C-alpha cells in the first residue's frame, strides 16, 4: 500500500522574508534550510550598516519546525503496516471473521435455550483422540436409556463456523431436541484454521467416528444406524466424510482409510453447506472477503485454483451413486442455497441417490438467512426441525 504525499502550501506576506521551507514526508520531518535566494531571484547581499552604529545585530532565530506531519505519518504508517500484515498472514482477517461468527453463534445458542425439551442426559468433553487438545465430543441421549444397554440410531453432528470458528457446544439445545425424539446425538469438536490447516479436521473427524463405534455400547450408539450431519462448514465436512466412506477412489486420493463402512451410514443431513469451494472464492464485498480469508486460513494457501485442498473439499465433484440418502436444506435469503445446496441436490438426484430437499421460493417472506434452521422462534425454523426428524426416523428405522 502506498500513501499519498501530503502537500502544504505556504503563502508568506510579500513584505516579509520568505518562510522556511517545509517538505514533510510520511513520518519524517526534513531539516529546514534558509533560502539564499531573494524575492527577485538574485543572491541577496548583506545590508550596509553605519560604522558608528552602537546597536548589535539581532541573533539569528532558529527556524520553527512543523511537527504535525510527523504526527500524521504515524497512523498512515500503521495502516500500511496493517495492510501488509493482512496481505501476507491469515490471522488478522481470521480473527475478524471468528469474532463475527462466534458472536452470532452465542446469540443463537442462548435463544435456543428456552426450547430445551427436558428428559435428555448429556455426557460432555469426551476425548476421542489421545494427546489432541481439540479432539473432544459431547453426547446427548434420552434419559430413559441411562443404565441400560439400549443402542439408539445416532446422529453425528459437525458444527459450522467457516472452518475457523465455532464449538461443539454451540446449539446444544438443538441437539437435545433431536435426542428427545429417540436418538443419540454426538457433537464433534475439531481443530480450526489457521492454527491447524487442511486436512487436520478431516483426519480428526474420521478418528471420532472410530471412537464412536468403539465405544458404542457405553454411548448408547447403534453402530449400524449412523447419520452424519452438519451446518455450513460442518455440512461441507460431513459431506466429505460421507464421500470418503462411499467412494473408494476418493478415499485413496485423500490417503485416508474411512472408519465407517458404507452399510453403517444411513444418511446425511446437510444444512446450508459448501460443496463447490471454487464457487466461493473471489467474491465481492465483505462476504467475498470473509470467504477468501476463511478458505485461506483453512487450506493454508491463497492459490485457490491450484489448491489440492480446495479440489478435495469440493464434494460436488466426488460424490457417487453410493452416497447415502441425503437431506439438503437452505434458506431463500442465503446465497449458498443457489450456488451450493441446489447444485449438490441436483447432482445426487441425477446419480439416483435418495434426496430430500427443503428449499423456498425466492419471494418467500420472511427471507430465510444462512443457518435459519436454528431459529426456532421462526415458524420455518421449527418446520425445518420437524422435517429433519422425519428424515432421520424414516432412514434409521430398523430394517426388516
Describe the structure.
By secondary structure, the chain is α/β, with parallel strands linked by helices. It folds into two domains: 25-38 and 59-88, no CATH class; 90-396, Alpha/Beta hydrolase fold, catalytic domain (Rossmann fold), CATH 3.40.50. The chain is 36% helix and 13% strand. The chain contains eleven helices and eight strands. Helix 10 links the parallel strand 7 and strand 8. The radius of gyration is 32 Å and the shape is globular. The protein starts with 67 loop residues before the first helix and ends with a helix. Residues 1-55 and 77-82 have low confidence and may be disordered.
Number of helices: 11
Q: Which CATH architecture of the largest domain?
A: 3-Layer(aba) Sandwich
Could you state the order of secondary-structure elements as H and E? HHEEEHEHHEHHEHHEHEH
Strand fraction band?
Answer: 5-15%
Number of domains: 2
| CATH hierarchy, class of the largest domain | Alpha Beta
Helix proportion range: 25-40%
What's the arrangement of strands in the largest beta sheet?
Answer: 1-2-4-3-5-6-7-8
Q: What characteristic shape results from the CA principal axes?
A: globular
- Name of the CATH homologous superfamily of the largest domain: Alpha/Beta hydrolase fold, catalytic domain
Biggest β-sheet: count, sense, barrel? 8 strands, mixed
Distance between the termini: 67 Å
- Mind telling me the C-alpha Rg? 32 Å
InterPro entries: AB_hydrolase_fold (IPR029058), BD-FAE-like_dom (IPR049492), GDXG_lipolytic_enzyme (IPR050300)
Transmembrane segments: 70-91
Protein name: Acetyl esterase/lipase
Organism: Rhodococcus tukisamuensis
